[in-house]
Sequence to fold (330 residues):
Amino acid sequence: MKKIAVVILNWNGQKLLEQFLPSVIQYSKEATIYIADNASSDDSISFVKSNYPTIKIIQNKGNFGYAKGYNEALQELEEEIYALVNSDIEVTENWLQPIINLFENEPKTSIIQPKILDFKTKEFFEYAGAGGGFIDKYGFPFCRGRIFDTIEKDNGQYNDISEIFWASGACLFIRKTIFRKVNGFDTDFFAHQEEIDLCWRAFNKGYVAKYCGQSTVYHVGGATLDAENSKKTFLNFRNSLWMLTKNLPKNKLFPVLFIRLSLDGIAAIRFLTQGKYKHFWVVLESHFYFYKYLLKFIYKRNETQSKNYYKIKSIVFRYFIKDNKIFKQL
Fold:
């Protein structure tokens, strides 16, 4: 058995599989490739079986989203390393070997993200992950190569290996033992922010996440939900609040949540002034969900929460007030 399982989660994504599976097959000789299907109603699975009979199919019983979809699919896989790869990812030659080397040489490294560039504009980083992720004190995520909507050009500035706080779910490598120790993804999240929550829970247990700039993939992004979709806005705002509730240090929990809720309110007003009325309402809806399930997520808290989870105090202040638009300015 090969030590890496490349697992592509699919839901009605036949066109994406037609476009992107060839690169995965061509450049993943070190891995066993799986398609984890979330009960697709298109011809995705028949296409894979007909054209790529060596690929293994895992059939989930419903559209479980990203979190539960992967949890269900991975519970039977015994490869040492799981590579969770979006169906809109194009991989490159030798993308796996640097990751394998890093896992083998650094036993404490448990999660790894490759360099993620934009498939549509290949000289630029891609929004979802870029050169590895961090969060600020209030749970706002940002990346080396991407802060809010400012995307950096890839000039080799992140060709290194570096410790990060979170790895993008678009292309995330994790040791099987660690995935199981942290009980996988939180299925309540459905999709969005679940990988940050996973990495935060791993971080609280002392495990290390790293970025490997010697491995490159290209990501389309927004293939399932684009940035203008109000459902995506709802999931991001709601799941951020749930993530903070679960993982913040006890003495910071309610002060940080209060400030985050206030900043969300400012964001909602900004949507309103931009005429994005659906986005305005879903921010309010996300807060109602947060209050409704607050106790549930307080009960999910682990015994230990690290105080050193954030890189800077406020990325909102640094970006919008101090005009720090790129990572090196932080």
About this structure: The longest helix spans residues 253-273. Residues 257 and 264 are 10 Å apart (CA to CA). The first strand starts at residue 4 and ends at 10. DSSP finds eleven helices and 13 strands in the chain.
